[in-house]
Amino acid sequence: MTNGHPILILPEGALRTTGRNAQRNNIMAAKAVSDIVKTTLGPKGMDKMLVDDIGDIVITNDGATIVEEMNVEHPAAKMVVEVAKTQDEEVGDGTTTAVVLTGELLSSAEKLLDKGVHSTVISRGYKMAAEKSQEILCDIGTKISLTDEPLLKKIAETAMTGKGAEAAKEALADISVKAVKKVVVKEGEKHSVDRDDIQIEKKQGGSIYDSELIEGVVLDKERASDAMPSKVENPKILLLDVALEIKKTETDAKIRITSADQLLSFTQQEEKMLKEKADAVIKSGAVAVFCQKGMDDLVIHYLAKAGVFAVKNVSESNMKRLAKATGARVASNLQELGKEDLGNAKLVEEKKISGEEMIFVSGCKNPKSVSILVRGGTEHVVDEVERAVTDAVGGVSAALEMGSAVAGGGACEIELARQIREYAESISGREQLAINAFADALEIIPRTLAESAGMDSIDTLVKLRAEHEKKGKNSGVAVLHSRIEDMWKNGIIEPLKIKVQAIKSASEAAQMILRIDDVIASSKKSAPPMPPGGMGGMGEY
Hints:
Layout: E1 15-18, H1 19-38, E2 48-51, E3 57-60, H2 63-69, H3 75-90, H4 95-114, H5 119-140, E4 142-143, H6 149-160, H7 169-183, E5 185-187, E6 190-192, E7 198-204, E8 212-214, E9 217-219, E10 231-233, E11 236-240, H8 260-283, E12 288-291, H9 297-305, E13 309-311, H10 316-326, E14 330-331, E15 343-344, E16 347-353, E17 356-362, E18 370-376, H11 379-402, E19 404-407, H12 411-424, H13 431-442, H14 444-452, H15 457-469, E20 475-478, E21 483-486, E22 493-495, H16 496-514, E23 518-521
Parallel strand pairs: 7-18, 11-12, 11-14, 12-13
Antiparallel strand pairs: 1-23, 2-3, 4-19, 5-6, 8-18, 9-17, 10-16, 11-15, 16-17, 19-22, 20-21
Helix pairs in contact: 1-3, 1-4, 2-3, 3-4, 3-16, 4-13, 4-16, 5-12, 5-13, 5-16, 6-7, 6-11, 7-11, 8-9, 12-13, 12-15, 14-15
């Protein structure tokens, strides 16, 4: 204030929340997102029905899908949504764990804030605990390799547990493991999997058990003409990135035709050029042609006459998959086609699935791109099966990439919490309080699982801690049996990478939210409307 006049630095109508209020509101918003997905955790997790503004419905218990479909307004809540997205992109599974952990870390921090512990001290303690967690996780993990197929199947089944596809999880786990093993790349002792090499195509109709693995590519397209064969066996496959039609000139040009002879000559020349294109394709020896660009009707006619199976306007991503699956090169020059450009497959055919044509390129020798065709009785079932298979593929890929796995059912978190508490004793200063709070927060996973099984959560945690003190590092909550069991023997196994990434993302997000003591919301018209009470709540979701 100068000479009695206030100095305004923010535009009129801007909302500002400071100090403890800002922290409390941010924590409240992050916890709200966490509480929404918490009940979906585990084999007895419940589903959420998400309805958008035009009435479209999504029914799922997949954490990534829930937070993505929610229309979250609060900025701190959006940071929690980012945690889920990062977990999904990096690992492909474990999004619910990451979100629930973020909420609980903030909840534990809030208790320390109420006791007068400074947020930077809590943040520093969380950073120390998160770094120690990474060391501990590497020690408690069990080595796993490409040859451990039964273990990989258990990892896939664990990833699908609690989803709508659980009834057929054994069959789907088998498909998922086979798909990953087909595309995995070994680099020395390490394995890497590009999940884009596993195409998951869904089609409503049939049952979940009709889902299948295709050693090749499935295209949601139809052949260029009904006059072409609908099925070709052991074909040579040609992939083209060149238009099989007459291109328009890039510059504006006019052709003046003054007589019928000139018109005839012009059309004959055009036909000749198109025939040359068709002849070049036929001469290459290809029996199946996939073209990324368009195809003239005359070219289609010549190819059909020669018994060639052709598909036009194939997307670039599918062209890449076809190249990886068949071993063909994507050619862009018709005049220089050679045998080395052609690929192979046992069968290329057009089949009608649920009333729609689809093209199957199957039986590829040593394919580096495969497809999983997911089936189900209704649209919502197919969508949930697709999410389950995506999680299974992500889980198996993550296990191979890090080469390590841990027991599920909260066993890993209890063991981690136990060792973090031991570590806290070696730390002097207030950071010790934050490290112990971090350990308490980790126990939200077994506690939530115990609650979903109808068990007493406090008694369960006490028993689990006692079991782990006796070196039972695999003891966890067997939700389906409502008791404590050895989760590794039970086949409840998760990739180590899920835990590593979830703890890393959750702790970083919690630290960032805790360090915010001032929230300034612009009043620009383009800004989204703030919820009632300033920054305190979440918008509709």
